[in-house]
Amino acid sequence: MFPKSSDTTFKDKLYSQHLGKTKAFEKPKPAKGKAEAHFSLVHYAGTVDYNITGWLEKNKDPLNDSVCQLYQKSGVKILAALYPPPPPEDKAKKGGKKKGGSMQTVSSQFRVSF
C-alpha cells in the first residue's frame, strides 16, 4: 500500500515539505518525562507533539462506504467535493476479482482529494 515507505521516510518527507515553510509545523523540543516526539503541529489550542512510530500502519483504516456516501450528499460543497462518487465500473471489466491493492483507505482518499 505504501511502496518503499516507512515511518522514517514519512517523517523525512514532512520535514522536507513543511519545516521552515509552514508556521504550523515545527521540530519538537525534547521534554523530560514525555514520550519521544518526531514533529509538532501548532493548533488553535496549543502545540501538539506527534510520534511517527507505527504511523503508516495505523493509517491503513479502510474508508467506510456509508460515511463516504454521507459526505457526497452533504450540503457543504467543499465536503461533497472532497468525496466524489467513484467512477462507474466498466461492464467489460466486471466479473474478475478486485486486486488486493484496490481497497481505499482514509489516507489514500485524503491524498487523492488534494
From TrEMBL:
<dbReference type="InterPro" id="IPR001609">
    <property type="entry name" value="Myosin_head_motor_dom-like"/>
</dbReference>
<keyword id="KW-0175">Coiled coil</keyword>
<dbReference type="GO" id="GO:0005737">
    <property type="term" value="C:cytoplasm"/>
</dbReference>
<comment type="similarity">
    <text>Belongs to the TRAFAC class myosin-kinesin ATPase superfamily. Myosin family.</text>
</comment>
<dbReference type="Pfam" id="PF00063">
    <property type="entry name" value="Myosin_head"/>
</dbReference>
<dbReference type="GO" id="GO:0005524">
    <property type="term" value="F:ATP binding"/>
</dbReference>
<keyword id="KW-0009">Actin-binding</keyword>
<dbReference type="GO" id="GO:0051015">
    <property type="term" value="F:actin filament binding"/>
</dbReference>
<protein>
    <recommendedName>
        <fullName>Myosin motor domain-containing protein</fullName>
    </recommendedName>
</protein>
<dbReference type="GO" id="GO:0000146">
    <property type="term" value="F:microfilament motor activity"/>
</dbReference>
<keyword id="KW-0547">Nucleotide-binding</keyword>
<dbReference type="GO" id="GO:0007015">
    <property type="term" value="P:actin filament organization"/>
</dbReference>
<keyword id="KW-0505">Motor protein</keyword>
<feature type="compositionally biased region" description="Polar residues">
    <location>
        <begin position="102"/>
        <end position="114"/>
    </location>
</feature>
<keyword id="KW-0518">Myosin</keyword>
<dbReference type="GO" id="GO:0016459">
    <property type="term" value="C:myosin complex"/>
</dbReference>
<feature type="region of interest" description="Disordered">
    <location>
        <begin position="83"/>
        <end position="114"/>
    </location>
</feature>
<dbReference type="InterPro" id="IPR027417">
    <property type="entry name" value="P-loop_NTPase"/>
</dbReference>
<dbReference type="GO" id="GO:0016020">
    <property type="term" value="C:membrane"/>
</dbReference>
<keyword id="KW-0067">ATP-binding</keyword>
<feature type="domain" description="Myosin motor">
    <location>
        <begin position="1"/>
        <end position="114"/>
    </location>
</feature>
